[in-house]
């Protein structure tokens, strides 16, 4: 499909420091790439002439920007949304979450992921990094829904022999689909042995895959790892040789200065999950210190049973406000920098080259969203970027394109029967709980 967006407030995420962040203009998509982005009406007419079959979308009163990137979630856990709230983490995992998961079938996981993807698409998330079970089934769901994803095959010592064959199947099923990448995802330093942690990393290195794990999420985790290995979670993982620029470390709350320096030096992607950390009382991640040290920081929702939604706009607002509050510095994580966490930085986290994803520029992958600015909470517009980060909501997203395909139009998701999806989810949850 060829698509022409006209008369938009364009936020390309390519402006240099001191330059205007937005301009009024047009954007043309040919195939799965952006062909042009310009303030010139002549460029729009040239695109129209070259592509007479192009679908034209009028964006007057609307903002056009790169799709958001959620760098750590468990999308299928929509089935557990609000299932177990206001409970300490270890009790939450051992007494509620893991027993629920033990009763899920692969079909349940595929169903939960479908619901999660629909929620993310409607909120302007065009790419996500997942970490869960049965990701071979996840490939099927991602192919069908059209979103872009890194699917992390989650394992513990107790199920590692089951998951590695699933990871092989996921690689085979994802072959030929550029939107899908597969990763190894050992759960955490306190649930996976050193041998199995290294095994997953070596598997990734042999196949050019990403590697992800939870790291330094809670006080209990830090205590357990120090008691077992005499090191902090970050130093322990570094000692195993698994930290590098192909590693995503989720949470990273309990860090000392040596940990921060290590994460920055190894170019590890830090996935910041502020609302989940707040809800489970994990603490406040030192995001400003990480950024000052040169670490690559991104933002994510975590799972919808520890958040309890997949609204990345809400997460951006929380991330920015939380750093200002925690540091006592109103200049901490300004809006323009916060937005980079969910666009430019998120693209790098997923392994894309600079300028290929997370920006609007000629040659970039065509993952774009349209935000309706004609809302009371988004008016007036002194600063469009501030409005997005501090005021916007998932429900303000009107149109979503992923890889050149129009997936959401006027807040309707292509190919999804919502009443049937909701009914199927309710039936699955009823059976699992029974």
Q: How would you describe this structure to a colleague?
A:
This protein has 434 residues and is of the alpha/beta class. The protein contains 16 helices and 17 strands. It has helices at 41-50, 89-102, 106-122, 135-145, 160-174, 194-207, 219-229, 233-240, 257-265, 274-279, 287-293, 312-327, 335-341, 344-349, 384-391, 418-433; strands spanning 2-10, 23-30, 33-38, 55-58, 62-66, 68-73, 125-132, 148-155, 180-186, 210-215, 247-251, 269-272, 296-299, 368-372, 397-402, 405-409, 412-413. The strands form 2 sheets. Strands 1, 2, 3, 4, 5, 14, 15, 16 and 17 form a 9-stranded mixed β-sheet that branches. It has an 8-stranded parallel β-sheet with strand order 6-7-8-9-10-11-12-13. Helix 5 (160-174) links the parallel strand 8 (148-155) and strand 9. The radius of gyration is 21 Å and the shape is globular. The termini are far apart.
